[in-house]
């Protein structure tokens, strides 16, 4: 494409669009129709120049022009409680539901790996000796030791806030770093699985596995599920880089990336609940069966939320992405 000829042929249309956008008075019906037509044409021109003869100066001008025109055509809107309600009842659970083929296998494989690591450590004294000195291991696993006092070592409110912050950061990192082919996600996931496996192994070797499970299950079921959802979604984002499917890679990453950002917000809310359980329920004086029961109830509530509300919304076409009117227009690339 001869860029100079192309610019000369369409400069008048761009100038006319700019003039309409600068009008301070209200446009007439004819002018409004003309604005929409020129916006569509200019967006197509921008696409053509980007793909055929990229010129930074012209692309910069047309990008700004298209953005202003799109704002004028579609109007601006602010977030409302309707958006919050839609996100919590449709967008977020649908996104988690649609990602289930990634995070459910991630959860199963991670749980099996943690159990295997726990068995390996628990049945091999030499591995335990490589982790810490015998006196330190006894201090960690004895009644009233570090594993038990960890959950009551700080005031419940500050402890819950600290746990929530750490877990929310880990989940966000899984979602954001997934774009690097999912490799950082695997490392973050392995660190979490390893920590759980070491705890299982050391407490098993001390004959106190029941105590360990009584401490981790009240909050850990929901917490680990949220981490698995984040990891599975991050891995799916990484796979999108490799295989975007029928969509262009740019479009696929934009759609999956927007859904992942929404997922980060939703998972932060779920992790807030698990942090509250870890800060207030786990170290409480409730019987073990009651604390575990609360953890199981929270986990079942989340799964019901995902598979009932999320499943229904997903079948109705919800994906967790922005509403159609809020997405960037997908335009033809032919003049």
Q: Tell me how many strands there are.
A: 0
Instruction: Give the N-terminus to C-terminus distance in angstroms.
Output: 12 Å
Helices and strands: which structural class?
mainly alpha
**What kind of sheet is the major sheet?**
none
Low-confidence stretches: 324-335
The mean pLDDT is: 85
C-alpha-based Rg, rounded: 27 Å
Question: If you had to describe this structure to a student in words, what would you say it looks like?
Answer:
The chain is mainly α. It is 79% helix and 0% strand. The protein has 13 helices and no strands. The longest helix is centred in the last third of the chain and has 34 residues, at 209-242. It is elongated, with a radius of gyration of 27 Å. Residues 324-335 have low confidence and may be disordered.
Features:
0% strand; single chain; disordered C terminus; mainly alpha; elongated
Question: What is the topological layout?
Answer:
Layout: H1 3-22, H2 29-52, H3 56-74, H4 81-98, H5 100-122, H6 125-131, H7 134-141, H8 146-149, H9 156-177, H10 183-205, H11 209-242, H12 249-281, H13 288-315
In short:
The chain is mainly alpha-helical and 335 residues long. It has helices at 3-22, 29-52, 56-74, 81-98, 100-122, 125-131, 134-141, 146-149, 156-177, 183-205, 209-242, 249-281, 288-315. Residues 324-335 have low confidence and may be disordered.
């Amino acid at each position: 494409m001869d860029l100079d000829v192309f610019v000369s042929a369409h400069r008048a249309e761009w100038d006319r669009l700019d003039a309409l956008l600068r009008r301070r008075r209200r446009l007439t019906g004819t002018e409004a129709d003309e604005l929409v037509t020129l916006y569509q044409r200019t967006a197509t021109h921008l696409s053509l120049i980007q793909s055929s003869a990229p010129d930074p100066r012209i692309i910069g001008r047309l990008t700004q022009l298209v953005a202003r025109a799109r704002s004028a055509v579609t109007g601006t809107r602010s977030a409302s409680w309707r958006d919050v309600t839609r996100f919590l009842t449709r967008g977020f659970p649908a996104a988690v539901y649609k990602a289930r083929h990634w995070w459910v296998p991630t959860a199963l494989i991670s749980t099996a790996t943690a159990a295997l690591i726990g068995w390996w450590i628990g049945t091999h004294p030499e591995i335990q000796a490589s982790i810490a000195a015998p006196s330190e291991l006894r201090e960690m696993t004895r009644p009233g030791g570090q594993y038990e006092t960890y959950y009551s070592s700080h005031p419940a409110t500050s402890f819950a806030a600290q746990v929530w912050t750490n877990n929310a950061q880990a989940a966000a990192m899984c979602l954001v770093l997934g774009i690097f082919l999912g490799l950082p996600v695997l490392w973050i996931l392995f660190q979490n699985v390893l920590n759980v496996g070491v705890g299982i192994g050391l407490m098993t070797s001390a004959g106190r596995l029941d105590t360990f499970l009584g401490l981790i299950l009240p909050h850990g079921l929901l917490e680990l599920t949220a981490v698995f959802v984040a990891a599975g979604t991050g891995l799916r984002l990484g796979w999108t880089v490799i295989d975007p499917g029928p969509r262009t890679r740019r479009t696929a990453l934009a759609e999956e990336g927007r859904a992942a950002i929404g997922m980060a917000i939703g998972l932060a809310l779920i992790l807030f609940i698990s942090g509250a359980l870890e800060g207030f329920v786990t170290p409480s004086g409730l019987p073990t069966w009651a604390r575990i029961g609360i953890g199981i109830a929270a986990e079942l509530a989340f799964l019901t939320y995902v598979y009932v509300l999320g499943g229904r919304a997903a079948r109705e076409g919800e994906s967790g992405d922005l509403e159609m009117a809020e997405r960037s227009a997908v335009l033809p690339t032919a003049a």
